[in-house]
């Protein structure tokens, strides 16, 4: 089974991706996490990525693609793509790649959350973890970019009849139970 998870920063899609990957034995591919791993290597490329991430902007897609394709190609049971696609051109590119490689995308799960709740959660997470891209100003910028660029991706998958929408306001266990109900059984 191959899934894509969409939702604003703070929607908890990373947490749900972890739970789903354990439940269905899928490879959890988080583009943000893969990029953060590049950053800690402190290579020239890593430093460039850090600069972009610290402004809440999108990293050039060829860099992201390199990292996620390696993972997709080593996912025998299927994958959960978390954090990609971030805009329409990424979505179209992923479709093209899936077609070329006879990969079937089963479902796109959209975790819907309002901005005030997303901002509150991001502020809490910034206190708990120590992510360098976690300041209130960057949170607002990431949400702005999300609305501008990622929101159209939701309509794109809706038109393909791949999208299921989940309310991301309740607690983690409730969201997970609701997610399982909406995933077509295999
Ligand atoms: P995330 O952990 O998914 O919230 O991503 C953290 C940051 O990584 C984002 O704010 C972007 O700067 C970068 N990023 C993650 N995925 C992508 C992507 N598919 N395309 C471009 N930038 C990305």
Automatic annotation (TrEMBL):
One of its GO terms (biological process) is AMP salvage. ATP binds at residues 10-15, 125, 170. It catalyses: AMP + ATP = 2 ADP. Keywords: ATP-binding, Cytoplasm, Kinase, Nucleotide biosynthesis, Nucleotide-binding, Transferase. It holds the Pfam family ADK. It is found in: Cytoplasm. Residues 30-59 are annotated as: NMP. Its EC number is 2.7.4.3. AMP binds at residues 31, 36, 57-59, 90, 131, 142. Pathway: Purine metabolism; AMP biosynthesis via salvage pathway; AMP from ADP: step 1/1. GO terms for molecular function: AMP kinase activity; ATP binding. Its main location: cytoplasm. GO terms for cellular component: cytoplasm. The keyword Ribosomal protein does not apply. Gene3D superfamilies: P-loop containing nucleotide triphosphate hydrolases (3.40.50.300). Catalyzes the reversible transfer of the terminal phosphate group between ATP and AMP. Plays an important role in cellular energy homeostasis and in adenine nucleotide metabolism. Monomer. Belongs to the adenylate kinase family. Consists of three domains, a large central CORE domain and two small peripheral domains, NMPbind and LID, which undergo movements during catalysis. The LID domain closes over the site of phosphoryl transfer upon ATP binding. Assembling and dissambling the active center during each catalytic cycle provides an effective means to prevent ATP hydrolysis. This is Adenylate kinase. The gene is adk.
């Amino acid at each position: 089974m191959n899934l894509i998870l969409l939702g604003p920063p703070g929607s908890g899609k990373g947490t749900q991706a972890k739970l789903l990957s354990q439940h269905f034995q899928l490879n959890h591919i988080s583009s943000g996490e893969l990029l953060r791993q590049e950053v800690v290597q402190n290579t020239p490329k890593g430093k460039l990525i850090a600069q972009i991430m610290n402004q809440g902007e999108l990293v050039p897609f060829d860099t992201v693609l390199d990292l996620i394709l390696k993972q997709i190609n080593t996912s025998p049971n299927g994958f959960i793509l978390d954090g990609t696609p971030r805009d329409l051109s990424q979505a179209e590119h992923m479709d093209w790649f899936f077609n070329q490689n006879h990969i079937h995308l089963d479902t796109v799960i959209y975790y819907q959350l309002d901005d005030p709740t997303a901002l509150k959660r991001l502020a809490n997470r910034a206190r708990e973890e120590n992510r360098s891209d976690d300041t209130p100003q960057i949170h607002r910028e990431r949400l702005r970019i999300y609305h501008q660029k990622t929101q159209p991706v939701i309509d794109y998958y809706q038109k393909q009849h791949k999208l299921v929408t989940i309310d991301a306001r309740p607690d983690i266990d409730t969201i997970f139970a609701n997610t399982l109900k909406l995933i077509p059984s295999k």
